[in-house]
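Example record

Each entry pairs one chain with its bound ligand, flavin mononucleotide.
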Amino acid sequence: MTKDVNDNDRQAALGDLRELIRIAGERGELEVIKGADPYLEMGALYELSLKHRHPPLLLFEDMVGHPANQRVLMNVRFSRLFSGDVSVEALKEFRKSRKGGGETPIPPEYVNGGPITENVLKGEAVNINLFPAGHWHEHDGGRYIGTEVIIINKDPDSDWVNAGTYRVMVQDEKTLSVFIEPGKHGSLIREKWWAQGKACPMVVCVGQPPVLGMVASAKTKYGVSEFDVAGGRLGKALRVVRGELTGLPIPADAEVAFEGFMPPPSEETRLEGPFAEWPGYYTTEAHPEPIVRVGAIYHRNELIVIGQPPAKPTFPGRQPSLTQLATLWDALEGAGVPGVKGVWKPTGGGTSFINVISITQMHAGHAKMAGLVATGSGPGAYLGRITIVVDDDINIEDPAELLWALATRWDPRTQTDIIDGCYTGYIDPLVSPEQRERDDITNSRIIIYAVRPWHWKDKFPRVNTVEKTYSDKVAAKWKDKVGFI
Ligand SMILES: Cc1cc2nc3c(=O)[nH]c(=O)nc-3n(C[C@H](O)[C@H](O)[C@H](O)COP(=O)(O)O)c2cc1C
Ligand SMILES: [Mn+2]
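C-alpha cells for the complex follow.
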C-alpha cells in the first residue's frame, strides 16, 4: 500500500533529487540494486519495472566497471510522487494549482558555489568515460549518458536561456554528441551561433532537480526559459552557478554537468545512433550529428546520473505526464478554443502521436476549431498523427469509450480532415527512406471529429444507458439481495 502524496513532500522532491530518493525510500517506493551491468542489464531491469503502472525508483549502486559510490537513478519522472494519479480530474487540479501559485515564472538565482562544484575537472583531467553511461538496448550505437538530461544553451541575441531534453551519446573521453530534432529550441539557438561563425556554448547536465527534467521535456514557449518556469513551479528560484567557460547557468544542486562548445557541423560531426527511441523502434540509423567539445566537468561527491532510456509506449509504466497534457490544454485555451473539458493521450500513442480533446460543443464549427488548433499548436504539432475530438459525455480515459465514440459518432467521409506536410521528427518510423534522403521530415495528420454533428445534434439518437441517479438508487436497494452489485 502506498500513502497519499502530501504536497510538501512532492515540492521537496521536485526541487531536489536526493530528497526524492529519501522520500521515496520512506514510502517504500525505492529499489536499491547493487552489482548490475550498465551494458544491457540495467536497461533490461528497467524495462521489467515498466510492467507496473507506478514503477519504483531504481537506484543502481556498485555497477560493473564503476566505483561503488557512483549511482544511476531511473524512473524519476514516473515516480508515484510525481505521477501518482494521471486522470482528467487530476489534470484539472494540476492546472488549477499552477494558476493559483506556481504559474508566474521565477528566474534563477546565481550563487557562487554549491554541491555541483564539489569536484571540478578541467583540461587534461576531463574524462567522460569515468562517469556511468548505460548501453541501454542491444542495437544502440553506443553508450548514452544523456537520456532524461537537460541541454542548456543561450540565445546569442537576447537573455533567453533554453533548457531542453535531448539524448546525449558518449563519443570519447572529451566529446559528446547531442541529437536535437529540427525546430527544437536548442537547435534553433545553436544555428544562430553557427550563422555568426561561432561554436555554440553548451552545458549538458545530468542529475538535475526533477522539476527541470519535467519542464525541459515539455514544450515551453519560444523565448521563455525553462529555468524560470521550473522556478515558478517550485515557488522559489532555482539556485544556479555560472559555468566557468561559458557563463551558462548550471543548477547548483545538480549531480554532474559537462561544459563546452558545439562547433558548426561543417567543422566536425560524429556518427550518432542508432538508438532505441520512444515510438518503439530503432528509426534513426547511425548518422552524423554535432558534438560538444567538453572543457570542464563539474560533479558532486557520490554522484547520481539520471537514466531514462526510451521504451515502447505500450508499457503500463510509460504514461504521458500531467505536464505534457497540461501544455496541450493550455495551448487550446491560449488560442481561444472555448468549452474544452479534457485532453488525453491514450497509452500506445506515447507522448504525441494520438491526442484526444473533449469539448462541450457550443457552436457550428467548434469541433473543427479544437481539432485544427490541437493539431497545429506548439505542444501538439511535433510527431503528431491522430487528433480525435469527442463530446463531453465520452470518458476519454477509457479506450472502450473512445472506440465507441469512433464507432457511432464518426462518419469517415464527412467528419475527417487529412493534412499533409506537418511537423514531425527523424524518429517517426513512417518517414520513408526517400523522404529522409531529401530532408523532408514531415508527415500527414488525420483529425477525426467523433462528435454528434452540430447541425442535427438535437436529432441524434439518445444514449441508452440507465440514468445514473436512478441506477445508484436501484443499486442501493438491491445490493444486499443480489450477488452482482
Ligand atoms: C526522456 C526524453 C528524451 C528526449 N529526447 C529527445 C531527443 O533526443 N531529441 C529531441 O529533439 N527531443 C527529445 N525529447 C523531447 C524534447 O525534450 C521536447 O520536445 C522539449 O520540448 C524540447 O525542448 P525545447 O522545446 O526547448 O526545444 C525528449 C524528451 C524526453 C522526455
Ligand atoms: Mn524551450
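Residues 162, 164, 185, 220, 226 surround manganese (II) ion (ligand 2) (CB under 6 Å).
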